[in-house]
C-alpha cells in the first residue's frame, strides 16, 4: 500500500493506493506551524496502516515538508518521496526552461490528464490560486497561467479598501446574481464572474492557438462554484493530482 498526499496552499488531501485503486480518501484544512502540523497528521492518519511508501506533491513549502517527513519517519520509519517536476515523464514534456520550477501539483495534474485524454487538453485547477495549463495531443506542455483564486481576490478587496466588511472576504455561500444589491454579494459575484470570464476567454484563445478544441478539465476546491457558470463542456476530476501521483507510483 502506498500513501499519496497532495499538500496544497490551504488544504491537504490524501488517499491510499492498493492494487492500482485509490482507497481511504481524506481531506482537511492544513496547519502551518511545525508542531501543529505534526499534531494534525497524528490526528488525521493515526488509524492508517503503515504504508510501503509515501509519495507527496507539496506546494506548501519546506516547513510542511520537514514536519511531514519527521512525522512519517517517527511513526512509520518511512521517508516520504517528494515529487519534483521533470523535463519529461509518463508521455508528458515539460514546457518550463527550468522544469523543477513547475509546481509539483501542476506536474501531477498534467500526467493524470495525459492518461485520461488522447487529444489536446486544458487543465484548470481552481484552488487558493487558479492554474491553467495546456497539453497538446502529443503530450507537450505548452505552459500555463496562474491567477488569484476566489478567496484570495476577496481578501485583497478587504485588505485594500475601507468600506467592505470582513464578511465579504468569505467564500460565496448562496446563489450568485448578476447584479448585487449589497456589498458582500457584490464582492462575491464580482470576483466569481471575473474568474469565470478569465477562464472562458483563455480556453477560447487556447482553442484558436491549437487549431483544435481541447478537452476541458477542472479540479480544485472551487470547481463546484465555477462549473455552473463556465461556458462549454467541462470534465470535473476532483482527484486529478492524486491520480497523477498514482501514475507516478507505478515506478516505485
SSE topology sketch:
Blueprint: E1 2-7, E2 11-18, E3 21-29, H1 34-45, E4 53-58, H2 62-76, E5 81-82, E6 88-89, E7 92-93, H3 104-116, E8 121-126, E9 129-135, E10 141-148, H4 150-159, H5 183-210, E11 215-219, H6 223-226, E12 234-236, H7 240-248
Parallel strand pairs: 1-4, 4-5, 8-11, 11-12
Antiparallel strand pairs: 1-2, 2-3, 6-7, 8-9, 9-10
Key phrases:
single chain, 252 residues, alpha/beta, 5-stranded mixed β-sheet, globular
Structure description:
- It is built from seven helices and twelve strands.
- With 252 residues, the protein is of the alpha/beta class.
- The relative contact order is 0.16.
**Which structural class matches the secondary elements?**
alpha/beta
Largest sheet: 5 strands, mixed
Shape: globular
The residue fraction in helices comes out at 25-40%
Extended strand count: 12
Q: Which assembly state applies to the chains in this document?
A: single chain
Counting DSSP H or I runs of 4 or more residues, the number of helices is: 7
Average pLDDT for all residues: 92
Percent of sequence in beta strands: 25-35%
Which strand order spans the largest sheet, edge to edge or round the barrel?
Answer: 3-2-1-4-5
Taking Cα atoms only, what radius of gyration do you get, to the nearest Å?
19 Å
Q: CA-to-CA gap between the ends?
A: 11 Å
Low-pLDDT windows of residues? none
**SSE pattern, N- to C-terminal:** EEEHEHEEEHEEEHHEHEH
Amino acid at each position: 500500500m502506498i500513501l499519496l498526499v497532495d499538500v496544497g496552499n490551504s488544504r491537504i488531501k490524501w488517499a491510499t493506493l492498493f492494487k492500482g485503486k485509490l482507497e481511504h480518501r481524506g481531506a482537511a484544512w492544513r496547519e502551518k506551524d511545525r508542531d501543529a502540523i505534526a499534531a494534525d497528521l497524528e490526528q488525521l492518519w493515526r488509524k492508517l496502516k503503515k504504508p510501503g511508501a509515501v509519495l507527496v506533491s507539496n506546494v506548501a513549502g519546506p516547513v510542511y515538508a520537514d514536519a511531514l517527513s519527521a512525522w512519517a519517519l517517527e511513526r512509520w520509519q518511512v521517508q516520504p518521496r517528494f515529487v519534483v517536476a521533470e523535463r519529461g515523464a509518463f508521455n508528458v514534456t515539460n514546457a518550463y526552461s527550468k522544469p523543477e520550477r513547475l509546481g509539483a501539483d501542476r506536474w501531477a495534474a498534467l500526467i493524470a490528464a495525459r492518461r485520461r485524454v488522447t487529444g489536446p487538453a486544458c487543465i484548470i485547477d481552481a484552488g487558493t490560486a487558479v492554474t491553467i495549463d495546456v497539453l497538446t495531443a502529443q503530450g507537450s506542455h505548452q505552459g500555463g497561467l496562474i491567477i488569484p483564486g476566489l478567496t484570495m481576490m476577496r481578501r485583497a478587496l478587504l485588505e485594500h479598501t475601507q468600506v467592505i466588511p470582513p464578511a465579504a472576504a468569505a467564500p460565496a455561500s448562496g446563489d450568485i446574481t448578476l447584479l448585487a444589491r449589497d456589498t458582500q454579494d457584490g464582492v462575491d459575484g464580482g470576483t466569481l464572474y471575473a474568474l469565470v470570464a478569465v477562464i472562458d476567454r483563455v480556453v477560447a484563445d487556447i482553442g484558436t492557438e491549437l487549431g483544435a478544441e481541447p478537452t476541458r478539465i477542472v479540479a480544485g476546491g472551487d470547481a463546484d462554484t465555477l462549473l455552473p457558470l463556465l461556458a462549454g463542456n467541462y470534465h470535473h476530476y476532483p482527484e486529478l493530482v492524486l491520480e497523477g501521483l498514482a501514475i507516478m507510483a507505478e515506478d516505485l
